[in-house]
Amino acid sequence: MKSVSILLTLTVFLYTISWSANIISHGEKHFLHYKFTVLTKSDTFPEFSAVCVYDDRRIKHFSNEGGVWILTEEDWTNTGQMEDPADPIDWFLHQIKTLSNCTGSQCPELHTFQRIIGCELEKLPDGSVNLTVFDEYGFDGEDLISFHYDTMQWIDKSPKAKRTKVEWDRHTGRNQFIKDFLKNCTDWISTYNSRKKTPV
Question: What is the tally of structural domains in the chain?
Fold first, then answer.
């Protein structure tokens, strides 16, 4: 699985679905990832960045000034709309402040909080397709917590995430949104790849 950076290697939840053989070719892989990174620095706390990547193409980035997603590649407007994750910058800032125990506008140590959410598909030799969906987080280079698609519960991967899991499991509305987002991601990526293969 792709990682947000060298600081974060994530485990994915994998399941298999039936797929029409003409959508993707044997051995073909496609992915859509939203990647979020928050860094603490002693001079400016914190620094936030977010990008959307499709098959190694950086198709969107988040504008901190405007508070909106901006298309990086103009041809993307013809591919149909994929709804962006809804969590605002303030939510990410709150998480890193809580995890790092930093207060105020500065933090004496460098900390990182990262998220990757999206979907991947791969055509297997037997004709089936592996579809992977994930929403996973890391803190200071270690796995922190991940979303379980079927149960809509969070899996803590670090002692630091015990409290976070309990809190996030209670947010049923947000968890339902994440599940819907991941379902839409798989629908979008299959539709887009099918459309690419259809002659104009």
Answer: 1
- Asked if residue 32 lies in contact with residue 189, where contact means CB atoms within 8 angstroms, the answer is yes
Strands 129-139 and 112-123: antiparallel
Q: Please name which of 195, 157, 184, 192 lies closest in space to residue 34, comparing C-alpha atoms.
A: 184
Cβ(94)–Cβ(103) below 8 Å: no
Q: Is residue 2 part of a domain?
A: no
pTM over 0.70, yes/no: yes
Closest CA to 123 of 8, 23, 2, 13: 23
Q: What is the percentage of the chain residues whose pLDDT exceeds 90?
A: 42
CATH number of the domain residue 26 falls in: 3.30.500.10
∠ CA(137), CA(18), CA(1), 5° rounding? Answer: 25
Residue range(s) defining the domain that contains residue 68: 13-196
